[in-house]
Each structure stands twice: as structure tokens, then as C-alpha cells.
Amino acid sequence: MTDLCEIVLDAIRAEIESMKFYEKLAAATKNFLLRDKLAFLASEENSHKRTLHKLLRDIAPEKTEGYENRIAGILAEEFKEPFEGTVSDLLFKAADFEKRSSDFYREKAKLFEKEGQKMIFFYLSVLEDEHYAILMKQYGFYKENEKFEDYNEFIHLGP
Ligand SMILES: [Fe+2]
Ligand SMILES: [Fe+2]
């Protein structure tokens, strides 16, 4: 029998990882336009995490308590600091992670028998697809304009 609880824990782990990654990248970014975009992605991952937490409570209330400890300390290799590479490299890595997250949700959705639970996973798949699209747009721009990350002169220009 499929352990749905473990699947949801895996998903929560991935959401926490990507949230932390976007938060750190946002903090390291000089350009506030990019920073806002990354902060937006971090806040979305946080809301995915909250959704999954509710789902976990639905599936296995006894496993909800202290679940953060069970999934702590496991970071995907690509999200370990120090971050190497240019902004466009990091955006591409993040986009790739989003693609895999979307695939994960779409694939695992099939394992849920309850319609509501299945739909949550399908919907998360769509949301991660959106992140992929956002990041690939950003990647396309920064690949051609790597220096824009350093362009923060207008930050000091008040109204
Ligand atoms: Fe997410
Ligand atoms: Fe995402």
C-alpha cells in the first residue's frame, strides 16, 4: 500500500527547501525588482507548505505533530550554500527544480483515492508550472542582461 503520508512529507520537505532557497536568494539580490519576484515565490512556497500541512492532518493526524523534525536537515544538493554561479544559473536551477516539483505532484496525484486530496496535488502541479514559467522568463532576461542584477541606481531615486 502506498504511504501517502510519506509522499506528503516529501512534498513538505521540497516546499521548505525551495522557500528557503528563494528567501536566501532574495536577501542576496541587490536589484529590488528581482528581490520582490523571489520574495513572492518564497511566499507562495510557504502557502503550499501550509496546504500540505492541512492535507497531512487529514491523512494522518498522529503524524502531524513534530513533523518538521522528521524532515529537517535534508537539503537538495543544488540548494546548498554557498550558491555558485551567476543569477541566470541560479534561476535556471530553480526553474528545473520547479519542473521536477510539478512532475512530482502530477505523478503522485494519481495515488490519492479521495477526490479532494487528489485535486490538491493536481493543483499544486499547476502552481509549480507557473513558477517554472516565471523563472524561465527571468532566466531568459538575465542570461542576456546579467549585469542588471547590479543595476540598483534607481533604488536610491526617491519620488
Ligand atoms: Fe511549491
Ligand atoms: Fe514552486
Question: Could you characterize the architecture of this molecule?
Answer:
This protein is an all-alpha fold and 159 residues long. It has a single domain (4-71, 85-152), classed as Ferritin, core subunit, four-helix bundle (Ferritin). It is 72% helix and 0% strand. The chain has helices at residues 4-28, 32-59, 61-64, 67-70, 87-109, 115-144. One fe (ii) ion is lined by residues 15, 45, 48, 101, 128.
Give the domain tally. 1
Bound molecules: fe (ii) ion
Number of strands: 0
Specify the overall morphology. elongated
The name of the CATH superfamily reads: Ferritin, core subunit, four-helix bundle
What name does CATH use for the topology? Answer: Ferritin
Ranges with pLDDT <50 over ≥5 residues? 155-159
Helix content: over 70%
Order of helices and strands: HHHHHH
Mean of residue pLDDT? 86
Terminal CA distance reads 61 Å
- Provide the CATH top-level class: Mainly Alpha
Main pleated-sheet profile = none
Q: DSSP helix count?
A: 6
CATH architect. name: Up-down Bundle
Structural class: mainly alpha
Strand content: under 5%
| Rg for CA atoms | 17 Å
Topology:
Elements (H helix, E strand, L loop, with lengths): L3 H25 L3 H28 L1 H4 L2 H4 L16 H23 L5 H30 L15
The site of one fe (ii) ion has 6 residues, from helix 5 and helix 6.
